C-alpha cells in the first residue's frame, strides 16, 4: 500500500462491446469524487482481429476506446485499491482479464499485492448468465493475493434496487440495453466504498 497522500485506485477492466466500460468509467469518476487518485485501464485484447471485425459492436468499441491505456503490473503495484471488471463468460471472467491476472505472479511472489483493498463488478447478456459466480471467481484471486475484499453488501439503498451484494452487475440483453441509472449508481457506490475503506485502512496504519 502506497505511503502518504490520497488513496490510489486502479480501475482495471475488460469490455468487448462497451457495457463493462460504461460501468468502469462511472466507477472511476466516483472514486475521483471520493478523493482518490485514479487510473482507468483496460486489459489487452486477445481475440483475433478478424473475429472482432466481424462483430460491428465489438469493432466499434475497440476503435472508440483506443485512447484508454492498457493495464500493466505497475498499475497494480501503484494502487492502494483495486476495482476489477469483466463480462461473464460461462459464469467466469472473460479470458482477457484472466490472462492479465495470470501475469501477476511476480507481484504476488514479492508480497506486493497484500493488503490492497479490492472489489469486482461484471455484466452478462442474460439475466441468469453467471454474474455472481463471475464476481466470486474474481474474488478468488484477491484471496490468493492477500487483498482485503470490500463487497458493497447492502450498505446503501441502491443495493436494494440492484440486488447484488457481491458487486455491481448489469444484464445487457445481448448488448442491447446499456447500464441504467440504478446500475451506474451501484458501481459508483461500490467505488466510493472501496475508497473509503482504503482511506480508513491507511489512517489506521499511519500511512
Which descriptors apply to this entry?
single chain; 207 residues; alpha/beta; seven-stranded mixed sheet; 9 helices; 17% strand
Describe this structure in words.
Residues 9-194 form the Flavodoxin-like domain. It holds the Pfam family FMN_red. Belongs to the WrbA family. The protein has 207 residues and is α/β, with parallel strands linked by helices. The chain has one domain (8-205): Rossmann fold. It has nine helices and seven strands; from the N terminus they run βαβαααββααβαβαβα. The chain has helices spanning 19-33, 49-53, 56-64, 73-78, 95-101, 105-109, 131-145, 158-162, 181-205; strands at 8-13, 37-42, 81-89, 92-93, 117-124, 148-149, 169-171. Helix 1 (19-33) links the parallel strand 1 (8-13) and strand 2. Helix 1 (19-33) crosses helix 9 (181-205). 45% of the residues are buried.
Overall pLDDT score: 94
CATH homology superfamily: Flavodoxin domain
Total beta-strand segments: 7
Please give the largest β-sheet: 7 strands, mixed
Report the sheet-strand fraction. Answer: 15-25%
Oligomer: single chain
CA radius of gyration is: 16 Å
What is the N-to-C order of secondary-structure elements (H for helix, E for strand)?
EHEHHHEEHHEHEHEH
- The gross shape turns out to be globular
Number of helices: 9
Helix content: 40-55%
**Kindly, what is the distance between the CA atoms of the first and last residues, rounded to a whole number of angstroms?**
8 Å
GO molecular function: FMN binding; NAD(P)H dehydrogenase (quinone) activity
Protein name: NAD(P)H dehydrogenase (Quinone)
Domain Flavodoxin-like: 9-194
Family: Belongs to the WrbA family.
